[in-house]
Amino acid sequence: MKASKEHGGGExxxxxLRARRNQVRPEHHWLAAGAQRQVPxxxxxxxxxxxxxxxxxxxxLEQGRERRPSxxxxxxxxxxxxxxxxxxxxxxxxxxxxxxVGGEAETPCMDMNTDRLDAVHQLLGSMTVPALLVNRWLxxxxxxxxxxxxxxxxxxxxxxxxxxxxxxxxxxxxxxWPELARxxxxxxxxxxxxxxxxxxxTRLVKELAAHSDVFRNAWGxxxxxxxxxxxxxxxxxxxxxxxxxxxxxxxxxxxxxRIWAFxxxxxxxxxxxxxxx
Length: 277
Hints:
12% strand; 2 domains; alpha+beta; five-stranded antiparallel beta sheet; 434 Repressor (Amino-terminal Domain); Beta-Lactamase; 5 strands
């Protein structure tokens, strides 16, 4: 498999603009589609016109020669590319930071300090539902006993994206695996945010893309997904079917850490979790 430029580092802002431009059709902006168009989406000059910037400047953005557009330009691009609130914020994050490319030093404040990790560990232990602590890369930083039992039989479990795409048996365990896989890719991209071009994310993306065609194709689509609550269906190897409502709890000031709490969605799942302990 030949890795794309973004898999090897590249320019996240440029790659995002190219991908999203291809997803907007001319008729979405009441432009004539025409019979001789060479691209399915908008042309570069059309995006520039809709965003209120010069074509030359937009070309430099897509080629990675310009990485720091102004706030007004970002707003114009968001409208031209029909970005929703999550995608518009992601574009702002890429533009505000210039998104470090692979090989540069990692941000030094990436992880929570020991005292706060200890406090969150105690919180997880007090919860009566399965719960995980994940960081912006979807590394599983901590979990309570029920969280461990929930994903029993799956490995590796150091990172939730690895668990979904690389663990033998994952497609049988996650009842709605195709949908979960697409959401996992989109969630990883949006959670990485301003670190979208970091060496740490690049390594993870290259690993997953090398072993999963589904991940590689979905990553190239640049979709974004941010959840506060979701419904999950699992097929546990010991206790059978589980229906869970996943709640995502953000931890302010933690550089992207979140608690994922899985609450039983029905009495059958509550009973099954009791059997698992």
